[in-house]
Amino acid sequence: MKAVVVHGAGDVRIDERPRPEPARGEVLLAMEWGGICGSDVSYWRRGASGTAALAHPLVLGHEVAGRIAALGAGVTGLSVGQPVTVHPAQVVDGQALPERIAGRGNLHPRIRYFGSAALTPHTDGGFSEFRAVPAAQVRPLPDGVDTESGALAEPLAVALHAVGRVPALRGRNVLVNGAGPIGSLVVAAAGYRGARTVVAADLSASPLSVARRMGADATVDLSRGEELPQDVDVVFEASGAPAALGAVLRATARGGTLVQVGNLPGTAAPSVLGDLVTREITWIGSYRFVNEIDDALDALRDGLDVSPVITHRFPLEQAEQALATAADPSSASSKVLLRLTTDASAQG
User: Fold this and answer.
1) What's 166-285's CATH class?
2) pTM of the model
3) Domain 2-153+307-346 CATH assignment equals 3.90.180.10
4) I want to staple 52 with a disulfide (CB 3.0 to 4.6 A). Which of 92, 117, 142, 263 is the partner?
């Protein structure tokens, strides 16, 4: 079978790998769609994502969906041909979490995540024609939700987790700074969870266009000198740019809440943070998700339309072009999808 494998910085290949067989408790998935994430781009460009560096080749991809091709021994409740997506996280051991974070599996110190080099051996992702997956990580798609939308359940879960970090969101005014794929999905998630108004801000017109189609009531084009609104109840910072923090904190109402969704750099970076103290702002981090992928599937079943975030589609064989498109600000891309089914895999 074909797989999208990163071998090092700037070196991604379409490799031939043996078609897997499902072990006991596993299912074999015939993959159909995969969404390119910033971590996939980072592995391709730098050979690392955050502190996770490649020690050997890695199959990319953790935003995936497909259909069950075979069931391993002992698997019940699933059927061949069923459309599914995947919860990409698996806790490595049974180590109990401290009481303060009980139930928050996303904060477990040792997690295997699809398409991640955080542990060695690495955990291959799902950008391949087939992938054997533990049945516990498989999530059936609701009726009416196709596998293209199913591939967006994982990033939508990230957005829903971020929105869920503010339990009393309903009826409140929201600002989302950074309208990339996650930011635009946060726009949709905030609206779905009952925000009164949602304003999206970005430095480029193309992501703001996506954000409007994802439900933003208004947009702010920072590249044109437009300013962030003031005294906003809840702000989601989705750009991950330290230089943005000063203005974002100033936009947050006194006593308001700022949720940090965008990944901040792991190295020192200058930021203006004075308003955090003088305005008594609650600054909350948001990392991946726990079980919100189930909530994402419910939202898709309920009719939440995430298709506007999809701007490009490429066949698996053009994975490098797809990565380059996702990485290029001038491409006006938001979510770039890979069609993982090839003629060979379609024939079984």
Assistant:
1) alpha beta
2) 0.96
3) yes
4) 117
